[in-house]
C-alpha cells in the first residue's frame, strides 16, 4: 500500500487530475486548514494562544521554471512580513525544489539567503525540508553554504537514510538547527533502513547523538519531527538522564495529526511546533501523508462517501 501510494504521489498524470476532484479537496482538509495563506496564519494565531509555535510551508515542489522559484521566494517574503506584523511565533519550512533547485541551484541558494535575511530582522528562522535521496547530498551542501552566512537557518534530516549519522557529525561544527524525521519517500535498501524497527532505532540513536552533543556544550537546536509518542518519550528520558531541560529539544508535528498529544506535551513543559501546510499544489504531499498511515485511506474514502 505504501509503495503504491508513493508511486501515485510521483505520477504526473494523477497530479494533474486528482486535485480537480471536489471530494479530494474535501479529504485533504484533514491535513491543512485551507489553501489560502490566511487560513494558515489564522490557525497559527489560535496555536499561539495554546503556546504551540508554527512552521509554515506552502505546498509545491519540483518547479520547472526559474520564474516559479522567484515567485515562491516573493510569496515567502510576504509571509514573513505577515508573521512579523501579527506577532506569530512562526518559522518557515521550504523545499529547495520549490525555489527552483532543479533549474538553477545558485539562484536557489540566493533565494534562501533572502528569506533568511528577512526572517532574521524579527528573530525568525527558515528551515530547509529534505526531499528524495537524489537531493540529499546537494541539500546538505546548500545548507552548509547557507549556514555560513545565516545563523537563523535549519535543515531536515531523515532517520531512514543510512548516511544521516555521518551528516549529523558533518553539520555539528556549524552549530546547526536539525529537524530529525523518519523520512517520507520510497528509498532503496542500499540507501535506507526499510523496516519500522530499524528506522525507529536509528531515529532514537541519532536524537541521542544530538542531545549528547548539546550536553557537551555544542550549540545545536534539535527538532524532533515525529508523531511517534513512544519515541518522543524515549528521547525525553535520554535528555533527562543527560541533565538537559525539557526544552532541550522541540517536538514538531504536522497540522491535523495528534493535536491532543501536542497540547499534552506543552502542558508538561515541552516545546511544540505545528507545521501548517497551505497552497493549492498539495497532491504529492497529501499522498505521502496517506502513505504514512493506511488508515488515512479509509478516512479519505469516508470523506468521499459522505
Ligand atoms: P510513524 O509513521 O511511525 O507514526 C507514528 C504515529 O503517528 C502513527 O501510529 C499514527 O498514530 C500517527 N501518524 C503518523 N503519520 C500520520 C498520518 N499521516 N496521519 C495520521 N496519523 C499519523 N519527511 C521528509 O522526508 N522530509 C521532510 O522535510 C519532512 N518534514 C517533516 C516535518 C514535520 C514537522 C513532521 C512531523 C514530519 C515531516 N516529514 C518529513 C514526514 C516524516 O518523514 C514522516 O513521514 C511522518 O512524520 C510520519 O512518521 P512519524 O514519525 O510520525 O512516525
Task: Describe how the helices and strands are arranged.
Blueprint: H1 2-10, H2 12-17, H3 22-28, H4 37-49, E1 53-58, H5 66-86, E2 90-94, H6 105-121, E3 126-128, H7 136-149, E4 153-158, H8 164-171, E5 177-181, H9 196-215, E6 221-225, H10 229-241, E7 249-254, H11 259-267, E8 271-278, H12 283-292, H13 295-305
Parallel strand pairs: 1-2, 1-8, 2-3, 3-4, 4-5, 5-6, 6-7, 7-8
Order of helices and strands: HHHHEHEHEHEHEHEHEHEHH
User: Regarding CATH, which class of the largest domain?
Assistant: Alpha Beta
Catalogue the ligands: dihydroflavine-adenine dinucleotide
Please give the number of β-strands.
8
What kind of sheet is the major sheet?
A: 8 strands, parallel, barrel
Shape annotation: globular
Name the helicity range: 40-55%
Radius of gyration using CA atoms only: 18 Å
Question: DSSP helix count?
Answer: 13
What would you say the CATH architecture of the largest domain is?
A: Alpha-Beta Barrel
State mean pLDDT (0 to 100 scale). Answer: 94
- Report the end-to-end length measured between terminal Cα atoms: 23 Å
Record the strand order, biggest sheet: 1-2-3-4-5-6-7-8
Number of domains: 2
Beta-strand content estimate:
5-15%
List low-pLDDT spans. none
Kindly report the CATH topology of the largest domain. TIM Barrel
Helical/strand content category: alpha/beta
Amino acid at each position: 500500500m505504501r509503495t503504491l501510494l508513493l508511486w501515485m504521489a510521483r505520477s504526473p498524470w494523477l497530479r494533474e487530475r486528482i486535485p480537480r476532484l471536489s471530494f479530494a479537496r474535501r479529504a485533504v482538509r484533514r491535513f491543512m486548514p485551507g489553501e489560502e495563506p490566511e487560513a494558515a496564519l489564522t490557525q497559527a494565531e489560535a496555536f499561539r494562544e495554546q503556546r504551540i509555535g508554527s512552521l509554515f510551508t506552502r505546498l509545491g515542489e519540483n518547479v520547472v521554471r526559474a520564474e516559479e522559484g522567484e515567485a515562491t521566494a516573493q510569496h515567502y517574503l510576504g509571509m514573513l512580513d505577515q508573521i512579523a506584523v501579527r506577532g506569530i511565533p512562526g518559522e518557515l519550512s521550504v523545499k529547495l525544489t520549490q525555489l527552483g533547485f532543479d533549474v538553477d541551484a545558485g539562484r536557489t541558494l540566493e533565494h534562501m539567503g533572502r528569506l533568511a535575511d528577512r526572517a532574521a530582522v524579527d528573530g525568525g528562522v527558515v528551515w530547509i525540508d529534505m526531499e528524495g535521496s537524489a537531493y540529499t547530498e546537494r541539500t546538505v551542501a546548500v545548507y552548509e553554504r547557507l549556514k555560513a552566512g545565516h545563523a537563523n537557518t535549519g535543515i531536515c534530516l531523515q532517520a531512514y537514510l543510512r548516511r544521516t549519522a555521518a551528516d549529523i557529525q558533518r553539520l555539528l561544527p556549524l552549530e546547526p538547527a536539525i529537524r530529525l524525521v523518519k523520512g517520507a519517500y520510497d528509498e532503496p535498501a542500499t540507501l535506507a533502513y526499510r523496516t519500522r524497527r530499524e528506522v525507529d532505532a536509528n531515529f532514537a540513536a541519532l536524537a541521542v547523538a544530538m542531545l549528547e552533543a548539546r550536553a557537551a556544550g555544542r550549540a545545536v537546536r534539535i527538532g524532533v519531527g515525529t508523531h511517534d509518542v513512544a519515541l518522543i518519550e524515549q528521547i525525553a528520558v535520554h535528555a533527562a538522564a543527560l541533565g538537559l531541560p525539557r526544552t532541550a529539544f522541540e517536538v514538531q508535528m504536522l497540522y491535523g495529526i495528534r493535536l491532543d498529544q501536542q497540547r499534552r506535551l506543552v502542558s508538561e513543559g515541552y516545546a511544540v511546533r505545528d507545521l501548517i501546510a497551505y497552497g493549492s499544489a498539495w497532491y504529492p504531499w497529501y499522498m505521502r501523508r496517506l502513505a504514512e498511515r493506511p488508515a488515512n485511506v479509509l478516512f479519505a474514502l469516508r470523506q468521499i462517501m459522505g
